[in-house]
Design a protein that fits this description.
416 residues; binds uridine-diphosphate-N-acetylglucosamine; UDP-n-acetylglucosamine1-carboxyvinyl-transferase, Chain; four-stranded mixed sheet; 2 domains; alpha/beta
Length: 416
């Protein structure tokens, strides 16, 4: 298992190119299963999760090629309508094959995802939504079996605007007979891109970017070329690195996708300027404590709360982070406290008492975003930090050590 060794304390400066968004490309790859032909996807981030999804699509029978961030998926010869446990357990987004395969082939078997490292993550909205469209769902030996000769449009109202369930129901309903209405739908930019791509393929979706999506089913979808939107969570992670340690510019990003987050950075004292596709930030000398509460888009993203906590760990006073999306996503706190942070957890609220400095230590990654937080902690800590289990970070950040090295961070990967 790989480790990162980071010698912290270096000032950083320079430019970073933001990669395509992990949470956009994974559903787009499964949307390609809706088409009897070849879909080309550009600006694909080279991630462990992208490669896991490639393995899954190949098991299902798709032909996939991936080179220089460009991917083609040919779904003309699908011959195995099953997502096996071994892959689903390593990446929950494998569940995204459920909607498209059911819609196109009338049957699919997908391993039921287990919990994840920070707690239970149910899939009940996905399954109830598919049942509303007429699917028969059963559980057999740990696998969800969904069947429907035809899917029929219906009204589906989610209890919570789930990103994954919105994506799955969208991909199922585009080929259903009649009109589907998804209420309390997710509005995340990755869902907006999925809707736009499906429409470019020939689907009929309106209300894009609102919490009410209307889908009129069509008979078939066509091949297209796609450019994946930039990863707003990767961008947010590097912005915090800049606010902590130096003057940096992010290229190929979309500041509009980070408005709430950028407002919070400004409240903390950041000097930020942006163009349509770049953001520059300067190191903050004295960080103001700023409370954040995660919300669904356009609110503060849950995928940036761990990184924000590192930032607030060295702020000038006390602050809090409340996660309303995942109430138990806090496995990074004990690891950050090992670096000298002073963070206490009370239910879904973390209280952070700013300290003067962090000090290097041995820490362990527990999930994708928690690992990013540990790297941020390591680059501000005095001395050496050893971060183990970095396979978590490889799931969601393209070339992270090379990008940080180019900014002047002393980081090396050790293979053990
Ligand atoms: C996606 C993102 C993840 C992000 C999360 C929230 C991908 C691949 N992953 O995950 O990075 O942290 O959105 O922005 O895009 N829920 C249920 N029942 C369900 C589905 C969800 O109760 O059937 C709950 C979840 O437990 C959670 C909340 O709804 O509390 C939001 O989850 P959801 O938006 O579905 O997250 P994911 O799509 O899994």
């Amino acid at each position: 298992m790989d480790k990162f060794i980071v010698n912290g304390g270096n000032q950083i400066s320079g430019k970073v190119d933001i990669s395509g968004a992990k949470n956009a490309v994974l559903p787009l790859m499964t949307a390609a299963l809706l088409v009897d032909g070849k879909t080309t996807i550009n600006s694909v981030p080279d991630l462990r999760d992208t490669r896991t999804m490639i393995r899954l699509l190949k098991i299902i029978g798709a032909e996939v090629s991936f080179e220089a961030n460009s991917m083609s998926v040919n779904a003309s010869n699908i011959n195995n309508l099953e997502a096996p446990y071994d892959l689903v357990k390593t990446m929950r987004a494998s569940f995204y094959v459920l909607g498209p395969l059911l819609a196109r082939f009338g049957e699919v078997r997908v391993s039921l995802p287990g919990g994840c490292s920070w707690g239970p993550r149910p899939v009940d909205f996905h399954l109830k939504g598919l049942e509303k469209l007429g699917a028969k769902i059963s559980l057999e030996s740990g696998y969800i079996l969904a069947k429907a000769k035809h899917l029929y449009g219906n009204r589906i109202c989610f209890d919570f605007p789930s990103v994954g369930a919105t994506g799955n129901i969208l991909m199922a309903s585009v080929l259903a007979i009649g009109e589907t209405c998804i209420e309390n739908a997710a509005k995340e930019p990755e869902i907006v891109q999925l809707c736009e791509v499906l429409n470019d393929m020939g689907a009929s979706i309106s209300g894009i970017g609102t919490d009410k999506l209307i889908i009129n089913g069509v008979d078939k979808l066509d091949s297209i070329d796609i450019d994946v939107i930039p990863d707003r969570i990767e961008a947010g992670t590097y912005l915090i690195a800049g606010a902590l340690m130096g003057d940096i510019t992010l290229n190929n990003c979309n500041p509009k996708h980070l408005e709430d987050f950028i407002d919070k950075l400004k409240l903390a004292g950041a000097n930020i300027s942006s163009t349509e596709n770049s953001i520059s930030i300067n190191k903050i000398d004295s960080i103001n404590p700023v409370d954040v509460t995660t919300e669904v888009y356009p609110g503060f993203p849950t995928d940036l709360q761990a990184q924000w906590m590192v930032f607030m760990s060295v702020a000038n006073g006390r602050s809090s982070v409340i996660d309303t999306v995942y109430h138990d996503r806090f496995t990074h706190i004990p690891e950050l406290n090992r670096l000298g942070a002073d963070i206490r957890l009370n239910e879904n609220k973390a209280e952070i008492n700013g300290v003067k400095k962090l000090i290097g230590a041995q820490v362990m990654s527990t999930d994708i975003r928690a690992s990013a937080a540990l790297i941020l902690g390591a680059i501000i800590a005095q001395g050496k930090t050893e971060i183990s289990r970095v396979y978590h970070i490889d799931r969601g950040y393209d070339s992270i050590e090379n990008k940080f090295k180019s900014l002047g961070v002393d980081i090396v990967r050790i293979n053990e």
